[in-house]
Specification:
Elements (H helix, E strand, L loop, with lengths): L3 H34 L1 H21 L6 E4 L11 E4 L17 E6 L16 H18 L3 E5 L13 E8 L12 E4 L6 H15 L10 H4 L2 H5 L6 E8 L4 H4 L4 H18 L1
Parallel strand pairs: 3-4, 3-5, 5-7
Antiparallel strand pairs: 1-2, 6-7
Helix pairs in contact: 3-8, 4-8
């Protein structure tokens, strides 16, 4: 009996030494079985991670150009550092310089007809052109370019001037003692209120003529040149006075209404520059 015990012990030891392999095989089988049971969940998680990665890549902003910061001090890094800079639109911080000043002076009825005519043959076109010439000469003397334009000048449709003033005179007919003074109408297409305000203030002060607002006609407010000029060009039409009661200041003393228009233009230029 004593000889059998050692043999049994050796067999037991041999069987015990084989147990770890069987346990590992059982454990692997259990993991595979567990994975098989939860395979849909595993696939869902994998797809979710892949999807999040794609979304992150797709919506991440592209890297902008890098700005290299070079270290110059003794304590700085020896290699350059590239700092990513977010792409931003370049904004203009300063207004562009305005182009050369150019003033257009429409000599009313020039190249078209005589306009109003007095009994002695004096025409409105003559008065208008005389005043326009004086204003143009004064502007040129100050280094400001001035163009004298005809009533239906072909240049009007593309005239890119700083401002346009159309010079006209009122009727030579005597209505009553109130038929004296001047009037102004601004463009209905382009904001011309600054130009109008400057011309009115300067003309009143220089000529001492009254403002004759109640005789402004649709021909002035809907003046053809307002519809012909490019949008953005301030423009006004001025009736410089009545050819009957204001005849002396419009002819013999034409320098006075010319000075009134000139002063108004200078006021406007000072306001917009």
């Amino acid at each position: 009996m004593g000889a059998i015990e050692p043999i049994r012990s050796r067999k037991t030891i041999r069987m015990q030494s084989e147990l770890p392999d069987n346990n590992w095989e059982n454990s692997s089988f259990d993991w595979l079985h567990l994975l098989g049971r939860h395979l849909p969940i595993v696939i869902f998680l994998l797809l979710a991670f892949v999807g999040m990665g794609i979304v992150y890549w797709f919506f991440s902003p592209p890297e902008a150009t890098a700005e290299m910061i070079a270290a110059s001090s003794t304590n700085s890094l020896s290699a350059p550092i590239y700092k990513p800079i977010p792409a931003k639109p370049v904004l203009q911080r300063l207004a562009q310089s305005p182009g050369p000043i150019r003033i257009g002076l429409i000599s009313g009825h020039k190249g078209s007809d005589s306009g109003a005519v007095c009994d002695d043959g004096l025409t409105e076109a003559e008065i208008n052109f005389n005043i326009a010439e004086k204003v143009a000469a004064a502007l040129l003397a100050q280094g400001i370019h001035a163009d004298i334009l005809e009533e239906f000048d072909p240049r009007l449709s593309s005239y890119g001037g700083t401002a346009v003033i159309s010079i006209h005179a009122d009727s030579c007919v005597y209505y009553n003692d109130l038929a004296t003074g001047y009037k102004v109408a601004p463009s209905s297409r382009t904001d011309s209120l600054v130009l109008q305000s400057c011309i009115e203030a300067a003309y009143t002060q220089t000529t001492q003529l009254p403002y004759h607002a109640n005789t402004i006609t649709p021909h002035m407010t809907d003046y053809h040149a307002f519809r012909t000029l490019p949008e953005g060009v301030p423009a006004i039409i001025i009736e410089v006075g009545f050819m009957n009661l204001d005849r002396a200041i419009l002819t013999t003393n034409a320098d006075i209404p010319a000075a009134g228009i000139l002063n108004g233009i200078q006021c406007f230029l000072d306001s917009v520059q």
